[in-house]
Amino acid sequence: MKKTPLFLLFLLISTFSIAQKAAVINHTQINTGSSRAAYFPVLNNTGDKLLFSSGAYSGLQLYDFTNQSVTTISTAAGAGYEPVFDQKNNRIFYRFSTFENGRKFDGMESFDLATRNTIPMLSPRRELRQVRSYNNGFLVAAEKQILKVTFGRTGNEDLYFVTTEDLKMVVINNGRKQYLNPLNMDESRYIWVSLSPDNSKILFTAAGKGTYICDLQGKILHSLNYLNAPVWYDNNFVVGMNDKDDGHVITSSSIQLVNIRTNERTLVSRSSEMAMHPTAAGQAGKISYHTTDGKIIVADVVIR
Known about the structure:
Neuraminidase, four-stranded antiparallel beta sheet, mainly beta
């Protein structure tokens, strides 16, 4: 049997990856268990659990797809702001906010899904920013430091983290801190930064310029144009909001899935919805978002 030349094999693989097409096959509204509005969904990586909160990030609820149950994780102020599941989906890490002399401080707690126990993880402090799941715990940016908070030994000391400080992009790569300015802006204004699932690329938005992907050294790899609140679906697709306003209020907003190589966009939300703040579980083929009237929607996605 004749062998395929190696360069042709690479070409075939590349062509297949570029030609991938996405389609939405179903939409489901989650029953959040109360008449109150629900916002800011967060899917776990296997797509069988979803967190949601109030419009002010107060309190945190868990929806379990396996039995359609809703569990209250916390009633604390700030608990719904960017909570994360641990890598094995055994725990949830979330914030709680306190106020002293008009100043806001944020701490971290964990909720064990098996025992239902709540454990304090990090005392309140200023400037608590991005939280990322890590081996047996989490990483968090706080007061211009990267803190590693774990239950005992992590078993892996490799550390990759990306965040912002005063709208400057900061990358931590195996303990080395580096400031990046991928667009060479005179005044940095980077927001919504995140690492790809394989830790090789950085997704970010530059206010007033658009959304981009760069490598860990800051070299621009892809320009995704206008896309707000972007998150990774997998290593090849990104999902975000295409929203418009009249200078005062948002007049339209849809959720779109973008092939980072071709920039081809697939509409995820329904045309009748004002859809915002997506979350994704590419491993499970799920994207979730909330509508402006407080409904949580889950879309099933296939990529061929």
